[in-house]
Predict the structure.
Amino acid sequence: MPHHAAALFVGLAAWDTIALVPHFPEADSRVIAESVVEAGGGPAATAAVACARLGVPSAFIGAIGDDLRGARIRDALAGEGVDVSGLVLCPGAASTAAVIVADRGRGTRALCPTLPPPLTLGPAHAARIAAAPIVHVDQAGYGPVMALSAATAISVDAGNPIPGLDPARVTLFAPTVLQLRRMRAAQDIATLLRHMEGPRWEVATDGGNGAFVRTDAELWHVPAYMAAPCISTLGAGDVFHGALVAAWLHGLQAPDAAAYAAIAAGLSCRAIDGRSAIPDHPTVLAALATHRPRPLSPQES
């Protein structure tokens, strides 16, 4: 199993069928889709693709079945240059699939995924996790990785509930503002982001309102990056997390890294699926010259 990847992603990979519609259908109705596409998906897998597209050697560990969808998942990742030698093949299991309806009019989507095969990590995976400079996990990868207690640095996508999540053990923590308010007894951004001292970087994303970043001295706001045309927001959060990992490895400071991630996520919305419009590193750097974070005053925070 090769160990050359700079970033390791562990968790869920899926094969998506995505319908783009002008509006969500009502019960027992019929809406003509503008387009239907199939593409690779899954939070950690799409984050791995984003990181690779942004110039960072990346690898993915996750469970797939020995079926056609599993082969498509593997080939799509490999086609993006993601190292897939750590995939766990589960004989007789069905690979994760998702049917997704994307509403162009409101920029929202509805997801209907199947459950993934169980992810069991072996000694070779443990060695690889221990050697990686950073390991990014989603809801399927958090438990198996944290059980090993071997990772040097952890990045977490908490977009879905994660039992036992301990942000104090996380190096890059980027939940939504809504999630933080559920986790912590506070409403204002300053208190939410400064409540705990564990993560090295803590970023709160807030959809079209952008993101907020805590550093030791200041609270920063990063505006959302609005790409045109915005066709679908599917996978934008996953791209944000992958880009945040890439920015961390590229050596950016936290506020600039959050802006870098916002640009990558915004540009990814130019396509129906979550991957095909992910930009490369030079494109994001060019946009970063003008898309800047700004410190918030105490009155604003």
The chain is about 30% helix and 25% strand. The first strand starts at residue 7 and ends at 11.
